[in-house]
Amino acid sequence: MILIELFAPAGVLDQAQRQEAGRRLVDALMGTEDSHAQAVMDSARALTQVLVHEPAAWVTGDRAGVDPTDPEGSSVPANPPRYLVRVTAPAAWRKEMSGHAIDRLTQALCETEAAAGRDPDRLRDEPHALVHVVGVAEGSLGLYGRPMGSLDLIRHLTAPHRDAVAQLATDDLPPGTVIDPVCGMTVDLAATDLTLEVDGTVHGFCNGQCRRIFADEHGIPLSA
User: Fold this and answer.
1) What pTM was computed for the model?
2) Which long-range contacts link 206-210 to residues 24+ away (Cβ below 8 Å)?
3) Sequence-ordered list of residues with C-beta below 8 angstroms from that of 187, at least 6 positions apart, any chain
4) What integer pLDDT is reported at residue 80 of this predicted model?
5) Selecting from 1.25.40.10, 3.40.50.1110, 3.30.429.10, 3.40.50.10310, what CATH number does the domain 2-136 have?
């Protein structure tokens, strides 16, 4: 469902640090606040993978940190090290995901730098951490040997947990909020127009795809 790739110059992170950085990136992207139902988040984590790459050459256009005595010149990575994080997800999720992913993934890299004894603040003060959120066109992701669109993926993630979502306690919800019946996220009804009324009950949704899935399953036509 989601692929996170971390590119770092060779030798910057040892094996243990690479593993820990991967875990930080997953935790950062999944988040905890405003979370969906825990079972749904666990399903999403199970389909999230991290690859750590160490390119053989790392060239920076500004030539900063290049050792003039090195015969290859610009093949020497900048010091302090630069990072690139690339997140690949369904295109329908890209815009909404980018809003929080860029900040959270940068913070995960800051924590990695701090753990390695380097200055973490430079990643926010200097352009040393680049984050790309890339959307994959509908039908270009596959599971079980067949193409899976973004709606298919949400159905896959949430379907086994809908009964549990329906049983989530609502007594402690802030006034004016409801639980998205598809994914379990808390939704502020005053801040969204993504709602549907069924048998006198107003349901709110965290995004249009959860609303579409609910409408389809209840035979509710939606306007184009």
Assistant:
1) 0.84
2) 206/36, 206/180, 207/96, 209/92, 209/150, 209/151, 209/154, 210/154, 210/158, 210/180, 210/182, 210/183, 210/185
3) 177, 178, 179, 180, 194, 204, 205, 206
4) 78
5) 3.30.429.10
